[in-house]
Amino acid sequence: MSGTTTAPGPLSSAAHAAHVARLTPVLTARDVSIEYEVDPPVRAVRDVSLTLHRGEILGLAGESGCGKSTLAYGLDRLIRPPAVMTSGQVTFHDADGTETDVVALDGDALRAFRWDKVSMVFQGAMNSLNPVISVRAQLEDVLTTHRPHLTKQRRRERCAELLQLVGVDPGRLDAFAHELSGGMRQRVMIAMAMALDPQVMIMDEPTTALDVVVQREILRQIMRLRETFGFAVVFITHDLPLLLEIADRIAVMRAGEIVELDTAEQLYAEPQHEYTQQLLSSFPSLLGEFSYDEERR
Ligand SMILES: Nc1ncnc2c1ncn2[C@@H]1O[C@H](COP(=O)(O)OP(=O)(O)OP(=O)(O)O)[C@@H](O)[C@H]1O
Ligand SMILES: [Mg+2]
């Protein structure tokens, strides 16, 4: 760089900084294969490689049973018997510059990584809130375990803050799961996944069980939170049209393999793989009226 002063151009804009940030990897998977060692064995994930960039929403689409959840478990080191990761590497590129070999994590290091760096909203999570303890107690539990230095006061404030972020009245903190609607329970699960400010959130079908209106509201909220906090999202669903609206890039999975991975625009305009074309054409009513640009606005 020369010492001459130049007018602020696109390179100094916040938008450009955000763009560059998104080209920085935060999580990479290389040749990941995962098998369920049952009889006969199921090769659920086959040689999958992908890069998740900082702050991006990466959609993972594909029919039921193609291996989406299994891959998600692989990315968050949640594989346990009968599942075995038979090959591959997963690397987390921390904002502080540290590189973490996710597969090798164990014990305390694993506990410090999960939730803290990469959190997960599990498929069917809204039904996994503990029925006999309050929302507050469950949120506080995450904070007590991972942020033991927080004062009681600060912990309580953080719980209220978290509910507010996901659009639930903090007045509901003392409620039990059965006192909340499905949408609220799912929001609480998202709040829990956000509790420690993770750099990556993996969301496995976070809105599938909800009606369309609630689903839209929650998605909008996730998009806003992503803008505010800059976390990256792996968003898993079989609903490809939904991904076209919210994802920056989309990976299409079939029978354990990623058959196509591209920007949402490109995938919609020129799907390369026959299976992607099939997936897109299986939503005819929507595509009949669907204008990609209008929908994204
Ligand atoms: N515990 C298990 N034991 C044996 N096979 C399993 C187990 N869990 C999943 N599988 C198999 O692994 C494959 C991938 O399953 P996975 O749950 O990852 O698919 P998915 O894409 O998430 O499906 P869905 O959209 O229905 O959630 C399927 O063939 C499934 O039957
Ligand atoms: Mg699944």
From TrEMBL:
Q: Where in the cell is it found?
A: Cell membrane
Q: Which UniProt keywords apply?
A: ATP-binding, Cell inner membrane, Cell membrane, Membrane, Nucleotide-binding, Translocase, Transport
GO molecular function annotations of the record? ATP binding
**Classification via InterPro entries:** AAA+_ATPase, ABC_Ni/Peptide_Import, ABC_transporter-like_ATP-bd, ABC_transporter-like_CS, P-loop_NTPase
The membrane spanning regions, by residue number, are none
Q: Give the family, as the similarity comment puts it.
A: Belongs to the ABC transporter superfamily.
* Chief location of this protein within or outside the cell: membrane
- Please verify whether the record's keywords include Transport: yes
Protein name as catalogued: Peptide/nickel transport system ATP-binding protein
Occurrences of domain ABC transporter (ranges): 27-280
The annotated topology with respect to the bilayer is:
Peripheral membrane protein
